[in-house]
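To fix ideas, we reproduce below a protein record of this kind.
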Amino acid sequence: MDGLLQDLRYALRSLGRSPGFAGITLLTLALGIGANTAIFSVVNAVLLRPLPFLEPDRLVRVRELYGAGEQGSVSGPNFLDWRARNHVFERMTASRGVTVSLLEGGEPEEVQATAVTVDFFRVLGVAPAIGRGFVEGEDQGEGQAVVLGDALWRTRFGADPAVVGRAVNLSGRTYTVIGVAPPALDYPGRTQLWLPLGFGTGRTLVRDSHSYDVLGRLRPGVAIEDAERDLAAVARTLAEQYPESNTGRSVIARSLSAESVQAIRPALLMMSGAVGLVLLIACANVANLFLARAVGRQREFALRAALGARRWRLARQVLAEALLIAGLGGMLGVLLASWSIDLLVALQPGVIPRIGEVTIDRTALVFTLAVSLLVGVAFGVAPALAVSAHDPASSFRGEGRGTGGTRASRFRAGLVVAQLSLALVLVTGAALLAVSVRHLAGVALGFEPEGVVTFDLSLSTARYPDPSAQRRFVQRVLERVHAIPGVQQTGAVFFLPLGSGDSRGDVAIEGQDPPALGQEHYAGFRLVAGDYLRAMGLSARRGRLLGPDDIEGAPLVAVVNEALVRSYFGGQNPIGQRITFGTPDSTAEWRTIVGVVGDVRHGGLTADPLAEIYVPQRQLAPDFWSIFVPIPLSFVVRGTSDATTLAAGIKAAVRDVDPQQPVSRVRDAGELVRAAMARYRFNMLLLTLFGVVALTLASVGVYGVMAYTVSQRTREMGIRLALGAQARSVQALVLRQGLAMTVVGIGFGVLGALVLARLLGSLLYEVSPSDPRVLIGATLLLAGVSVVACLVPAVRATRVDPIEALRSE
């Protein structure tokens, strides 16, 4: 221990005498270790840390399978049968997201809520922090109990522990607070309060109304595959009992832990690999610096050896210096990581789950310590071995002035080749993501977001208890908003484009043979009000759009998109033909197709448009309308003003209709596009950042090796110039050596880039992982940077004064 402390004190003094070397190595390691610590903290919180529930590995999400392998929500009766007949779950719970208006002091506020069955908290294995959860019977009929989320309890109720038992007004209906959820509970995401589900109301007991999410807790020792088989058997029984609604429907079960990170996992793994490559480049850079430093200190080590120091003692000194540098770099890396995490949280597009839990905790610190030690050993071993293997006598004979021997020179060149290869891999990956983002920016949306402002309203079934009253409220809001100066068209719809939500079901076409059970035609239902289609910039490709005369009592009509025409009409003109939701039975409401519009990307930028039907809200049957009422209704306003200008006018117009009605999410429609693009831009930004860091470190590595080589060959360069060599030939000599490393590095880098590109496949859009233009562009960029890095030492080599070079010997 005394010897180690002595080595560390000597290392500190030695580094203090070389502040430039110490600063460069510390900065390089801080970048590499800090980036790895930051990304590991994200991966640890999102992928590695278990969900904050009791035994989360036993939690399983269950969905229905239908059609050509499509997954969907579950009907209320099917859920009740699954719960009663399964043999694999301890408990099961159903839930559905709803939006309510909180009318408690201050401005009315729209709150994201989730309606759940009584077993919800028991399935998750969490208990309310204050009060209790739901009890048997509270999920039947019109519920009157509510559990508040922790954040809502703190912001709107002042964290008052006496809130239990208090009456609150939600959308005009009185509820009693029975509990407050623990802070860690955020399921489903962004839920601010939980309400009882309310079986026995609306369409909760209609078997062909699929609108619930189902979560179950497995019995101990039961595998997910066994649970899926058990529920599939129940589904087959239900198909026999209820063939019209359940034929062709099966079950798929997936781990909640895996599903919660399924969408973000590829991006996080990509980030982890990228920062790992950056760390390898940093290690190679520092290793080269340490090798050069060790060669420059050969006479020092030779003198110490002559005074009796053993080779292991000298090697240990070099290794101690490396570990000290790595430790200090790790400390700076933790500081850099903390700033980086704040930046990640600020930049992330809202798709990283549990991002608020990302911290540099004990696990992250242990990771940083392990990485620092590993890095210190990685770049310290080679110089230590070089020192221990060096013959001290050669240094006194003047043989230590070279580059450290052919083997050492090749090793340093190999490190540069590795840096260049890894940098090319990252640059190529960043270029592929950049091309993907450019292609996504050019995707045909099917609507025109410019000049459109959107906002959301939640319909109150307490203040507007029947569909007619609710539709009149919507119509009055549309009229008041349309009267705002500068507004041209207004409309409303359930679910805006680009992944805001979806509602799909089976349809039948009059005159066509009904498809076999389980092979039904499916389409998305777009329930619109006002002049929605024109407000969104859609035009009729055939026929006409929906108009003000398409109201209650008028002939039932519908507008379909081109995808539906291609899928179910073979591309033929559908105008005048009739279509209905569900099966063509005696109660079917046949609608005449009066128009065809272009395809709109409702599922997201990368999802192909599917068959869709646009139906006037005012012509919808009351029982069908009741399915959508709990969902926020989105309004669209086309005009000459932006969201900031229109926001006050919109809120005033809504208050004129109902002073208790909150208005939420007033925004330009361009925000829909930016939100859909955000995840792809985020991935591109991070990988580009890592690519720039890698390219910078690699170019510094090339420059460092070539500059060191030139400094060690000063005598040779002086002799060449003294014997009449042209400056150009000396420059070419240096450039050839540098470019040889670059060519080899690019060769290995291309192979690595092809491998990485295929791993990035799920993150790319309309670009081949092996796109030659991207590979050539990345290669030329790396080659150009390398040429510049080699050119500076090459030019410096020609400025050597031959007389001074020879005199120094």
About this structure: The first helix runs from residue 2 to 16. The radius of gyration is 34 Å. Residues 718 and 802 are 4 Å apart (CA to CA).
